[in-house]
Amino acid sequence: MADALLDVDGLDVVYDIRDATGRAVRRLHALSDISLVLERGEAIGVVGESGSGKSTLARTIVGLVTPTKGHIRIDGKELPNRRGSAARHGIQMIFQDHTATLNPFQTVGRILDEVIALWRPGMAKQQRRQQAVSLLGKVGLDAEALERHPHAFSGGQRQRISIARALATEPRLLICDEPTSALDVSIQAQILDLFADLKREGYALLFISHNLAVVNRIAERIIVMQGGRIVEQGDTSATIRTPSHPYTRKLVASAPRLSDRGTLLASVQARSDNPEEQEKTR
Ligand SMILES: Nc1ncnc2c1ncn2[C@@H]1O[C@H](COP(=O)(O)OP(=O)(O)OP(=O)(O)O)[C@@H](O)[C@H]1O
């Protein structure tokens, strides 16, 4: 598809399951024949129960898992399955566990500066600092954050910092693997607002969540996965309103208050005035 940003075509992933000695004892088909197309600036939500293959899909796209079959193309060109290759092609991943991306021994300024310097080798120090301040502003943090270490921030703010770090590589696509699941419900709403803002700015999102309400808030299209396969995909609201696959029907039926769409997030929003988060953010 010529105009697609990301084109995943017939992707299979098989894991070797090993015993304690490291010997492969069986194979697990984690992804089977996954195909999806994501347009520029579009947000697609990926839902499915635990073990359905959502993280494997994300990790395969960014080169952390090697597929046994299929193609991943960015701008119509094959994306090499290597660590770092996705970043060079404008794809960044945002994890649930931001501790993985934030070095606790470095200040936020240092964390951001390392990435900016890598991406813009010729940029002068003062300009890099300005760039870091601008990235912090984009995620709702002020320049003061530069001098502090990650542990000085709340969970929601640390997730903001890891988003700023991802944005430092000037990506076009953010692959978000349960980026709000580890946060309090009130903070979740604020981080979701941030993703909605980023989407309005033109970033494409592949947004993985087990929470249908979250996907409904962020993504115009939805992909439903079960047992490593896509069982349904389409417009998010239409799919939630009239799911056609029995598994999607089950997911919708078991989602709390989803029958009254919007209510869940409206209630989350009403509680999003978390003083701790607000105080530290500004
Ligand atoms: N490195 C691995 N080695 C072997 N099996 C794995 C590995 N990673 C995942 N799996 C298995 O692959 C299947 C898909 O896992 P995956 O983590 O992709 O699902 P998921 O939908 O993201 O689940 P969750 O929501 O719990 O993160 C599961 O059966 C899981 O146990």
Automatic annotation (TrEMBL):
Keyword ATP-binding among UniProt keywords: yes
This protein's UniProt keywords: ATP-binding, Nucleotide-binding
This protein's record includes keyword ATP-binding: yes
Protein name as catalogued: ABC transporter ATP-binding protein
Species for this entry: Taklimakanibacter albus
Lineage: Bacteria, Pseudomonadati, Pseudomonadota, Alphaproteobacteria, Hyphomicrobiales
